[in-house]
Write a structure and sequence with these properties.
homodimer; 201 residues; alpha+beta; 4-stranded mixed sheet
Chain lengths: 201, 201
């Protein structure tokens, strides 16, 4: 790989994060880069910024629902909003990092499974049970994954990741950092592509 | 022109609106479309959405300052944030519509002059005097423009425009409506371009 990995910050409950997840690896690979997937719990960040979830904002709520459907059509990926939305993503994030520290490929596969269950199947993946059951998709026994989610060290690991994200200026999902340069928003992947191609401007 | 004009909603105090203003006419023209420039006063809209100006949001404030500078470099246009920012844009909006109803070309030239003064020269164009003085740039005597700004009908005209914008779902700047299809954000011009090219998806 010809450079440092891109940092791909997102929340599992973020449709724009889900949409970006379908493009980011291939985009980075075209430039010889890997991607470090870094799920975070945006609720913690929103306490600092005062932001509220898009769907709860008058006018904007209607727009984003339309935009998510439109963007998924363009990308050719399924899209269904879970009935319970946004959903707490803490258990999924704990499972991700617990697995990440043992097997990066499986952790990424788990992240994709969570996104798929949430936004292709429309199931809020909020409870530890929901996440543990997805272990089967990535060859990890659900009871093993459940133990990882419940491990107090997983909680500490997530806290550190979120603190680091905030220290790096992350305030939304997706948020991509390329060689220290921050890009916010699902509609910025083409800009990230241009940045990687040109080396910046 | 081969279709209805695009509606280009923006606030004169919006850097993303300023940046989009440099691309929107040429983009539309490539598809045989005209553009109706529709400045609004976002403060009224923010009372509905509860939004606060970007620069006042922790973490996001730092990001947008960096993003505006970066986007302007890419576009090759000057960018300076006025010391007083955001600034109230009511007088500029009143002047715009007063002139628009007499001479669309001069009104657009005035809009460009306001944006240029605000974000190329870094001068908050908030007072009626500031706006009136820009009349000289578009061949309208400042005292004539001042009378237009002070005309109670201008105020009514602006209220109607803002009410219509809200009824159409406009909640930020820039906000572009193409044949009824809404696109929000300065980073959506390429998407508008693709939409016009393909006829939608």
């Amino acid at each position: 790989m010809g450079g440092a990995p891109l940092d791909f910050y997102f929340d599992f409950s973020s449709p724009y994060g889900y949409l970006a997840s379908h493009r980011i690896d291939e985009l980075a690979a075209r430039h010889g880069r890997d991607v470090e997937w870094r799920p975070i719990t945006l609720g913690v960040v929103f306490k600092i910024t005062g932001a509220v979830p898009h769907v709860q904002v008058p006018l904007k709520g209607d727009y984003v629902r339309r935009d998510w459907a439109r963007a998924s059509r363009r990308l050719g990926v399924p899209f269904t909003l879970p009935q319970k939305f946004p959903f707490p993503s803490g258990p999924a994030v704990r499972a991700y990092y617990w697995l990440r520290d043992q097997d990066a490929a499986k952790a990424r596969a788990l992240a994709k499974a969570v996104f798929h269950a949430a936004f292709a199947e429309g199931r809020a993946i909020s409870a530890a049970d929901d996440v543990a059951a997805l272990g089967e998709k990535v060859d990890v026994a659900p009871h093993t994954l459940m133990a990882g989610i419940a491990d107090p060290e997983s909680d500490e690991r997530v806290k550190n990741e979120v603190d680091t994200a905030i220290a790096r200026g992350v305030f939304g999902s997706p948020f991509i950092i390329v060689d220290g340069e921050p890009f916010f928003g699902g509609d910025r992947l083409d800009e990230v592509d241009a940045w990687l191609k040109s080396g910046g401007w």
